[in-house]
Write a structure and sequence with these properties.
4 helices; 32 strands; 5% helix; binds CU-O-CU linkage; binds copper (II) ion
Amino acid sequence: MLLALEARPGTVELVAGRPTASLGYNGPILGPTIRVRRGDSVRIAVRNGLSEDTTVHWHGLHVPAAMDGGPHQAIRAGETWRPEFVVDQEAATLWYHPHLFEKTAEQAYRGLGGLFVVDDEVSDRLPLPRSYGLDDIPVILQDRRIGQDGQLRYGPAMPDVMHGYPGNVLLANGAIEPVLRVPASVVRLRLLNGSSSSVYRLTLSEGLRMHQVASDGGYLERPVELEAVVLSPGERAEVLVDLRGRPAASPLSLEAELFQGGRLRALSIVASRPAATAVSIPAALAPIARIDASAAERVRSFVLSTMGPGGQLTINGRHADMHRVDERVRLGATEIWEVSNRGMGMMQVPHSFHMHNVQFQVLSLNGAPPPATLSGRKDTVLLWPGDAVRLIVAFEDYTGVYMYHCHLLEHEDFGMMGQFEVEGPGLAQSAHGGPPATPARIP
Ligand code: C2O
Ligand code: CU
Ligand code: CU
């Protein structure tokens, strides 16, 4: 499969009569949903049509380090990067976005991002809505600040870096409060929190419940009925909404409460036509192969902290450094990664922990078994102040340097990021501790 993406500037009319300068892939804002099957060989030509460096990272995908699109794979203006990889993971809603060192947030803010959906035999077999755009709807949620002139305003001051940079509008798929017309049946929403730094508590009007069927890395074992879906930046949830019997005259709305305060409407949902198929909410989904915790050969600890010297954002007291590998992991190893969010006083802010290359499983949250919504494969996990999670991770297939970081993008850009290197047998540790000097940059 050969795909082409081009990051380029564009213009969208978010507010009528006031065109907004934006960035997008192959269009003015966001990008096409990339859809692949497990087992596919994928080649992508990623052209940088911007006037500055960028990268495109495949968030949630298990790919070789040189194909990951993290800060090591910068693409210069006018150049094309050509990653290739074989998709080998469960059906899931993943995504892609820029990931330039210390500059991820702004390019994403201006519109760069898109979904990356993987299908497999399980998704073929499950009786879930699957007509893309009809009853299986991508919903990319991003609060943004828009000025009177219709332009996006991105310029967080230091307190915003710490506490988040909430917007005055909430974009759903790059539009303000769009109306979604769907059949009066069970519909699937593939929710992505694509914001910079806002944790969303998502609810439907009338207190209507949602049934979560998948988290970051794919299906849960059974649907989880929820009044609210809490997503931190980068996290995904696939939910079913039961609109059977709902008249077109009573629209629903999906709303987001931001952790900093405030509530914004994402979109309205109108059951505008009769159901074409009879889909119900299944009792069970797919078993999850559990990573065996007793096989863990070591435990590592990660302290996310905002109390370092000068109120810095650090992991284990350190600032991100591209020339330092923080953790060396053996290829084939299973490990427990313990992550905690420690801050003091005014520095008590939420953080998250995202790992490239892997889907981990949550063993415990604050010493207790994780809630059902965290019981599946995850690549990003939210930590409120004081929280501690134990993750079980298996490092398989690929060696090389990958990132881990807080996915609140201002925190990431201001240093809350580290690197792990997966080392194969016989690979000598590099003397200077630096990452391999071969970024996959192809002119
Ligand atoms: Cu969504 Cu390191 O990224
Ligand atoms: Cu990622
Ligand atoms: Cu953070």
